[in-house]
Amino acid sequence: MELEILLNRLEALVADSPRLPLTGKVLVDAQEILSLVRDLRLTLPDDVREARRLLDERQLIMEEAREEAAAALSRAENQADRLVDESTVLLEAQEKAENLVAESERVAREIRLRAREYADETLERLQGQLERMLETLTHNREDLRR
């Protein structure tokens, strides 16, 4: 991810810059810092678009799960209707339909759960990256002000 590369460059710039004796401060090239900050700002929208894409993908997965469950339910209902003629067949059909519905609902729940977990994990990683980037930028700005 380009964002991490830029953050690594920023970190390396600070780590490799000469230190002022007895102060713990470093001398950094302001142009390099400003250039990296500009590049970070340009890269950030890509990460935001990626998060939006993940949310859209999650929504699509959930919609597909709903459609699949509805189709399975429709198939089960159609099958049950065809088997109504005899009572024993009817009982079997009802049992199969209930099993199909239960299985469809289970599969739909599982797909929704996985989609939510995937989106949450991805957004959590992105949040962590953004928080680290913000912390680094805040520290660098504080160092520049000193």
Fold and architecture overview:
This protein has one domain. The chain has 3 helices and no strands. It has helices at 2-16, 30-82, 87-145. It starts with a helix and ends with a helix. The model has no long low-confidence stretch (mean pLDDT 87).
Describe the protein's topology.
Elements: H1 2-16, H2 30-82, H3 87-145
**N-to-C span:** 31 Å
**What's the overall geometry?**
rod-shaped
Class from helix and strand fractions: mainly alpha
Q: What Rg, in angstroms, do the CA atoms define?
A: 28 Å
Order of helices and strands: HHH
The percentage helix is over 70%
Précis, in short:
87% of the residues lie in helices and 0% in strands. It is built from three helices and no strands. The two termini are 31 Å apart.
Q: What labels would you give this structure?
A:
rod-shaped; 3 helices; 146 residues; mainly alpha
